[in-house]
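Hi,

I'm pasting everything inline rather than attaching a file, because the server keeps stripping attachments. The sequence lines come first, and each chain or strand is labelled.
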Amino acid sequence: MGQTFVQKALARAAGVAHANVGDVLDVRADVMFSHDNTAAIIRLFKEIGATRIAYPQRVAITLDHAVPAPTTAHAQNHADIRAWVREQGIEHFYEVGRGICHQVISEEALVLPGETIFGSDSHTTHFGWLGAFGMGVGRTEMAALWATGELWIRVPETLKITLTGRLQPGVMAKDIALKVLRDLRLTGSGYRAVEFDGDTIGTLSLDERPVLPNLMAEFGAMSAYLPPDSLVFDALEAKRTRDYTPIYPDPDAAYDQTHAIDCAALPPQVAFPHQPDNVFDLTDALGQPIDQAFIGTCTGGRYEDLAAAAAVLKGKRIRSRLIVIPASAQVIQQALATGVLATLIEAGAALNTPGCGPCMGNHMGVPAPNEATISTGSRNFRGRMGTPDAPCYLANPYVVAAAAVAGCIVDPREVMA
Amino acid sequence: MTQHRVHVYGDNVNTDLIFAGKYTYTLRERDEIARRALEDLDPDFVKRVQPGDVIVAGQNWGNGSSREQAVTCLKWNGIRAIIAASFGGLYLRNCINQGVHPIVCPALHTLVQTGDVIEIDDGTIRAAGQTFAIPPLSPSVQAILDAGGLIPMLARRFRSEGG
Ligand code: SF4
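And the predicted assembly:
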């Protein structure tokens, strides 16, 4: 019987020849990262009685969740993390303004196809875009990883999702991911690994691909995987510091569940408050009033997201407020070079420091009670953006930008006409 | 053979109902966290619970976020084991890492009521006149539980290595 990606990747990382579903393995991390939650992990690490991180060269830390520090408490948290970084000699440390953990680690090519990355962040499934095994872990688990470089994992069952056809103009990977949630619901994965497959993947750009595995966190997946191709390999070439061997599933691998999406027929999708699986076609969302539009996050703040918004906003003025937070400093530079940033600012957008911004309600766009936000982010749980009674919609950046112009959810083609 | 009082819940109890998200960054002390356990689902739980008690639940107990407090808020109230028809995947990991035994038992929540007493030994649960086998864990996972969780297990290892 053939093996799925996750069986092969975990066997490699555990140093065993073969991994069966249900085996419990001690898995070696190629990369382990944390962010603003690092200070809490330090306390757990000290409880273990360890003093030095076992493999500091495999550790990455970004400051991104509340940057620049909005309060004294946040600033102290950052200061504690900087002191720890110096004490432990952690080289892969990324300061305020560099960008969101998942984006920065991808840009820096810290993790490579076939490798294993653990992050104390639920969206670590993100790294499936390059064919790595990415898994979110708790703070206790990150402390254990620092101490030993390893973590126990039960080899999961795999759900295969086949994507066919080319997306229509104005439809993006975000819509595919929302459709998966719509079809299979929030707990549909049952903590399986997800493997994407099908001819759609090759048609998606590198800015688009991470959206699929990233949003599988919403779905309760342990990890998610896209088969890497030459587009991925070429992108990693300039920065990578070691060799790698990509891993592909066997043709006769066993999947305990499968699902298929016809991407060519897919219209834009909108997640309604207060759950990312509360999804409808755009046509059923038209007219919903919007007070604030937000383009940003690890799932909706890359260059092509900004460019999509600029295509809608060119020569327009926004009616609601529009907050734009590029996912990294590199994204800003790219958007600056092509004029995308100028278009957004001319339309009236408020530009902020790369980071998570209001995604988890820390700052930079927390809504007032009853104010509706439409966001390119990944989560719209009640209170997620910091205010319990503020509805939040999720959609692709064309739809979000068009809503900023109209003051309500509209078909972007209407605005662009 | 030990005797345990049970607190019984239904299907799909998520981590927000066990420990509300609004407390995740503000509460640090054990007794503060324990006091908020099951606040929105069962406000009387914290008044009723006694050390050694056990949770019995339906399908998908602990689905949702990865927050460890959804396990520790129960542990710091003295909960020894959680018996559920099934568990959220991250929750199951958190249980083991915190040294709280997660036991899969598909039918128990339909047979007992809050306040009933059940008996547990190494391999079986006895309740409502029936006996249920406790599915064995893999030896490495059992070792984490036996040590009281991942941090105590590693602490023991680091002490013995003098590191
Ligand atoms: S942008 Fe949002 S989803 Fe992404 S890492 Fe930051 S808080 Fe999490």
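Chain A touches chain B through 31 residues (CB under 8 Å).

If the labels don't parse on your end, tell me and I'll reformat.
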